[in-house]
Prior knowledge:
The protein is an all-alpha fold. The protein has ten helices and no strands.
Amino acid sequence: MLEGLFDPRRWEITLSSMEGFWEGFAFTLQVVIAGLALSLVLGTVLGVFSTTRSRILRGISRVYVEFFQNTPLPVQVFFYYMAGPRVLQAILGAPSPVRLSSFAIGALGVGLYHAAYISEVIRTGIEAVPRGQMEAALSQGFTRVQAYIYIILPQTFKVILPPLCNQALNLVKNTSVLALIAGGDLMYNADNFVSTYGYLQGYIMACVLYFIICFPLALLVQWLEKRSKKRPRAKTIPGITPEPAKEA
C-alpha cells in the first residue's frame, strides 16, 4: 500500500487527471466565499441579539445556536437535500418539488451551521467591550444600532480575530460534507478519482488543494491581528495638534 504512494506511474495518472480536481477546487472556493459571507452576517446579527435587553431576541439567538450546535452538519445537509425541494414546493405553490443546486445546499449548509458558532464568538467579543462604551455612545446621541455599528462592533472584531479565523478554517474543511450528496466539490471529485483508479494519490492532492485555501487565510488573519495591535498614529490637525520639534 505505502509503496504505491511513491509509484511514478500513479503520480503521472493523478497529475494528468488534475482537471477534475481543479473544477472541484473552484466549486469549493465559491461555496466557501458564499458560506462565509452568510455565516458572518447572520452570526453577527445573532451575536448582537444575544447581548440585547430583549428576552425575545435573546431567546431567538439561543434557540438557533443550541439547535445548530447540537445537530450534526451531515444531517442538516441531508435535510436540505431531501426536504428542501418539498419545502420550497409548498412555499411557492409549485406543481413539483423545486430542486436546490449543490452550490445553494453547500452555502446554506456551512453558512447556517457556522453562523451559530460565529454568533457565540461575536457575543463573547461584545461582552469583552466595557459596558461604559455603550452608555457613553447613548449619552452622545447615538441610537443603540448606531452604537453597535460604529463603536461596539469595530472593537469586538479586533478582539475576536483569532477565534473567527478558526471558524473560517473549519468552514473550509466542512465543505467536504457535500461529497455525501454528490455535490461536485473537491472531496467528491477526489472520491471519484480514488474509486475509479484505486490510487490514494487522489486524497493527497485533495489535502494539498485544501491547504492552498486554508494556509493563505490563516496568514491573512495573522497579519490582520498584528495590524490591529499596532497603536494608531495621531493625526496632525493644523492649529490644534502641536507640530513635532525640528532637530537643529
